[in-house]
Amino acid sequence: MEWGTLRAEQPVVTQLLQHAVWRERLPHAYIFEGEDRDEQLGAAFLLARAFLCSNNDPAAKPCNQCSECKRVQSGQHPDIIIIRSDGLSIKKAQVEFLQKEFAYKGMESTRKAYIIEEADKMTTSAANSLLASLEEPEGEALAILETENLHFLLPTIVSRSQVISFRPLSEASRQAHLREKGETEEVAAIKARVGNKPTSLEDGERTNWIVQGRQVVIQLAEEVFQRPLQAKWLLQDKWHTHFNDREGLDTGLDFLLFWYRDVLYTKWGREDLAYPDQLERLKTEALNRSESMLAAQMKAVMEAKRYLAANVNPQLLMERLLLRLQEGSNFASSDWHSL
Fold first, then answer.
1. Which residues lie below 8 Å from residue 134, measured CB to CB, with a gap of 6+?
2. Are the CB atoms for 176 and 272 separated by under 8 Å?
3. CA-CA distances (angstroms) from residue 309 to 85, 105, 314, 315?
4. Is 200 exposed, middle or buried (0-12, 13-18, 19+ CB in 10 A)?
5. Residue 56 CB contacts under 8 Å (≥ 6 apart), including other chains
6. CA-CA 20 to 30 A from 46: which of 39, 132, 269, 312?
7. Which stretches make up the DNA polymerase III delta subunit C-terminal domain (predicted)?
8. What are the structural domains, with CATH classification, of the chain?
9. SS3 for 68?
């Protein structure tokens, strides 16, 4: 990523970061927060490259010509440390390793930078350990914490960092970006809407998972519409098999929400669809569903997401949701008393 690329989507963010580089007044810690992790990480590496660049002209950083820039670009710079979650969390031992590394002088220069991906996954002990480094940074150090969930970070960490908020990209921009990276129209359309969910999967695995999951959702929507008595069988046979944990189920509910939104969009004549290859099915369902029924179905899915976050039993939740979708009605609080 370069400044021009970042400016096209995030002009305010670019201005803030460039001016800090030009004035050589970078704070010791940033928090990059927003929905698009790829963009935030691209900006983090761009800023780290500018920070380590050896060009004497601040306005020309990063120059992409010096050895520091080239090593950052190749992922081989010894003075950049990347911290990622170990399993489901970032552990105290990882932060302690980071602190130990920063106790030594930089190998290429006097400066060092570190990037913590998904910083909200730090355990409490890891976050408290990092706090000490932010309060008393070692030498010329730059910390960049990337997160989609700023409110999950310790307030004391947030208060000691400069927060840079990345505005959400439009679905159209994200979709175009994914197409440029080689995704098919169908996968790009759904990926642009769910972002990096589920986060437990690597990008290649996530793509395969999305392809399979989107097909399960299309089949379930078809059963609800055409063969409601068979829908419960599909729920047991395919839905629970694919969406087999809470994060996956939450993403599956997003897929389902996009389906009913697409039916409504089709009724309105809009073309920005999550399922562009299913236009004929969407048209058929739109002709047979009123706007009020579609609104009720969408609300039912959103309510299901809320109850899932409250640790309601996933299998029972989906059975109740299926009934509501078939009836085209909303959840009532009494529906959940037995869960």
1. 28, 29, 143, 157, 160, 161
2. no
3. 22, 45, 10, 14
4. middle
5. none
6. 132
7. 248-326
8. 3-165 (3.40.50.300), 171-336 (no CATH)
9. helix
Dihedral Cα 51, 56, 58, 62, nearest 10 deg: -50
Encode pLDDT of 2-34 as tens digits: 999 889 889 999 999 999 999 988 998 999 999
* Three-state DSSP state, 139: coil
Report residue 81 as tokens.
């440390």
Question: Which residue reads 């440029």 in tokens?
Answer: 180
Structure tokens at 290: 């009123």
- pTM for the model stands at 0.58
DSSP secondary structure string, 190-246?
HHHHHTT-STTS-HHHHHHHHHHHHHHHHHHHHHHHH-HHHHHHHIIIIIHHHS-SH
- Number of other CB atoms surrounding residue 113 within 10 Å: 26
Per the structure block, which two tokens stand in for 312? 């309601």
Alpha-carbon distances of 295 from 136, 139, 214, 216, 322, rounded to whole Å: 53, 56, 21, 22, 15
Task: State the pairing for strand pair 29-33/80-83.
Answer: unpaired
**Which amino acid type is present at position 124?**
T
**Whole-Å CA distances, 170 to 167, 175, 184, 197:** 9, 8, 18, 17
